[in-house]
Amino acid sequence: MINVRCGKDEANINDKLTSNHNRIIVHFHHTFFNLSETFIRRLIQFHRYFSPVALCFRTTNIKLKPANTLLFRIPRSPIDITRAIVPLYFPSYNILVSIFPSHYELYVKELFNECLDKHTELILSHFGNNAPYAVRLAKSLKIPLFVYFYGFDVTVILKKYPKYYKYLEKDVEAAFVTSKYLYSRLIEYGFARPIHLCRLGLNLSEYKFNPERISLNKDNPVTIVSVGRLVESKGHEYLIAAAEILVKKGYNVKVIIIGDGPRKNILYNLIKKLGLVDTVRLTGMLPHEKVMEYLHKSNVFVFPSVLCRDGSTETLG
Fold it and tell me: Which one, of 154, 166, 160, 101, lies nearest residue 129 by Cα?
């Protein structure tokens, strides 16, 4: 990783781009690489026609960075923080704030225009709430801006602030969504730019069919696995309640819930209250390889979800 603030760390940058493609796509996110955002890492990792460059304000779990990606951490000023806040509370000042320059633009412009000899074609903002920052980068580099919406940036933000993205629309080339549900919600809120439905892909070679785990009856133990952050929208409490019903009906079930989050203690207390300590296990966050092991050994994968009071829901609705 290179900290753009450091100036001359850009030496030999071209040697660090592992791809032979001379076209660059810039991925922008507030934080790279969050453990739960495997879908973003896959998207970056499997580029076929571009060399990916990642820009962010904060880094975490650097070991998860795809090998084909060059990562830059850029500084953020107080003015930049207002780019996300002003649209929420002072929509009439959106245009004014959007024209204020960011001091990191100078570093980024020099980096891409003078230090990289490859052609930068576009910038992709991961999550709509990061677009206010990405707009400045796109303008500085004179490249088109695309925005990938994943869920809460539509269901929560637009429910509370329906015009949050209005002042950005003229600077956005197009948007991507992962489901028809998000597509319809963006249309409902009047998003005026082209919207493309683009499913998040999987490396299917990692998912091996296990014929030994097909049988589901009271005579054989049944392993149920669920994977996701422990937040309200995931609906894990309903899976736990379902496990209680199965146990009372005489099924030998084991429920494995993989993930971490703010509702961990709430879920654990529910497990104890229902007497399911020997039935339901909260593993916490696990590396991808371990998750795949659990999936391969399971009989059923369950992904419960609910519509939360704040409007948040899963991407599929």
Answer: 154
104 versus 59: the higher-pLDDT residue is 59
- The reply to whether 208-301 shares the fold of 2-197 is yes
Distance from the Cα of residue 215 to its chain's centroid: 35
Please answer whether residues 187 and 195 qualify as being in contact, where contact means their C-beta atoms are separated by less than 8 angstroms: yes
Contact 189, 158 (CB under 8 A): yes
Identify the CATH number of the domain defined by range 208-301.
3.40.50.2000
- Number of helices and strands (H, E) in the chain? 12, 12
Report the topology of domain 2-197.
Rossmann fold (3.40.50)
Assigned token pair, 243? 């496990």
Per-residue pLDDT reduced to its tens digit, 157-210: 898 888 888 888 899 999 999 999 999 999 999 999 999 999 988 888 888 888
Q: Is residue 185 classed exposed, middle or buried when 0-12, 13-18 and 19+ CB atoms within 10 A define those classes?
A: buried
- Here the tokens at position 305 are 């979800």
When pLDDT is averaged across residues 128-155 and rounded to a whole number, the result is 91
Tokens of 229: 């952050």
Q: Where are the domains of the chain?
A: 2-197, 208-301
Q: What is the pLDDT of residues 268-309, one digit of tens each?
A: 999 999 999 999 999 999 988 899 999 999 999 999 988 887
pLDDT band at 78 (very low <50, low <70, confident <90, very high): confident
Q: Using CA atoms, how far apart are residues 279 and 273, in angstroms rounded to an integer?
A: 13
C-alpha 62 chain-centroid distance: 16
Task: Assess whether pLDDT exceeds 50 at residue 8.
Answer: no
The HSE-up count of residue 189 (CA atoms within 13 Å, CB side) is: 23
Amino acid at position 149, single letter: F
Distances from the Cα of 259 to the Cα of 267, 285, 312, angstroms:
12, 4, 19
Burial label for 176, CB within 10 Å (0-12, 13-18, 19+), is buried
Contact status, residue 181 vs residue 159, Cβ threshold 8 Å:
no
Residues 6 or more apart whose CB falls under 8 angstroms from that of 133 comprise 28, 30, 57, 76, 80, 83, 84, 102, 125
